[in-house]
Amino acid sequence: MDKEVFANISKIIERDSKSTTYKFALLRGVIDIIEDNSPYITQVSGRVQIPTGLLIEKWLIYYYPILQSEASIPQINGDVNLAFGLQLKGIINKYELRGGFSAFYNDLKSKGIPNDLHSDFFELIKKIRDTITKMPMKYIGRSISNDFYSIFDYENPRMTPPVHLNIEYLIQQGGTFSIPLEYFEAFKVFGSFINGQNSILFKWAQFSVNASGQHLAIENVINEVLKSPITARNIDESKRIYRDILKQEGKVHCVWTGKQLFNYDIDHVIPFSVWKNNDLWNLLPSDAKINNQKRDRIPSPALIEKQKDLILNYWQIIQESQDQRFQREMQVALLGNRAFSSWKESGLTQLQSSCHYLIENRGFEAWSI
């Protein structure tokens, strides 16, 4: 199986636009359809074709409970609704007195959507299809290619008003989309791990729920399993120590630009969201605007090489002020079995290696100035 495909999938998940949840819903839907082993899946000229109606069905299942929830669960950045949000909320409201989510899905799968809801539901599924094919399908893969529709392709025939509006209608009238065969094979083998149903964390939580005699909920167990020992208080304490050190030095320069600063952020070199590491060596002063540009991206090895003098200067300052902590954290995170006497060369090399790994193997986006 092509290793490059897996690298591309990682890059798509990490680097492609995250302004909405559409990308996640599309990937999740495709994987779920493949795992369902749908008989409608066909192979043509090195690509796998799937009815778009099956994907519309998945999106209805995913987004219905989210929009029905009493808690606000944002699905798009900013004060903006999902492209089909108003239409779906309209259907949700009308199903409140008809049995809710389960009744809706039973109608879609078996009985058919009631005639008095045909018009509203017809507009909803057209809107969802347009959203899927003209947004995430168009842009997925832009992190690995400059082309639109670099992975997905689709055909959207005109949908005629239905006599019976059910899943069969969606399959027959919704058109088709396709992905390269090598992506289909990758999703077929590892899709459940990407989706999380067979992930170690999910299996762990599932075991705990079963062992409790079903008295616990999976989501509650996962929430506990995912807790980090590093709290906001720990981060603030480390940053306070760092600021105290810099006050004694007088002049402070942005580690990424070299510009002298009077107000600055303390930046996690490798973002905290990527690696829950609050070591002092991983905290460096940065211009606030530059830090905002960097966000959760990974400094490129070339940028680290370019700014190595400033990085090593700050590491030296930390060592002189917090020698024992610096040695301990540097040894565990960057030096390993190498002697501490080589901390400058070995530490910088390992930092570059870690960033290279996160960019090339884990799919995180590289950052440079």
> Strands across the major sheet, in which order?
1-2-4-3
Number of strands: 10
How big a fraction of the residues is strand? 5-15%
Helical content, roughly? Answer: 55-70%
Low-pLDDT ranges: none
Structural class: alpha+beta
How many separate domains make up the residues? 3
State the end-to-end CA separation: 36 Å
Could you tell me the radius of gyration in angstroms? 25 Å
Largest β sheet strand count, sense and barrel closure: 4 strands, antiparallel
Quick one: overall form? elongated
How many helices?
17
Rounded mean pLDDT score: 90
Q: What is the ordering of alpha helices and beta strands?
A: HHEEHHHHHEHEHHHHEEEEHEHHHHE
3D architecture notes:
The protein is α+β, with helices and mostly antiparallel strands. It has 3 domains: 3-195, no CATH class; 197-227, no CATH class; 232-367, no CATH class. The protein has 17 helices and 10 strands. The protein has helices at 3-15, 22-35, 52-68, 85-95, 100-111, 118-134, 136-139, 167-173, 181-195, 200-211, 218-225, 232-249, 288-294, 301-306, 308-321, 323-335, 343-360, and strands spanning 42-44, 47-51, 153-155, 176-180, 252-253, 260-261, 265-268, 283-286, 298-299, 366-367. 28% of the residues are buried. The mean pLDDT is 90.
Keywords:
single chain, 369 residues, alpha+beta, 3 domains, four-stranded antiparallel beta sheet, two-stranded antiparallel sheet, 17 helices, 56% helix, 9% strand, elongated
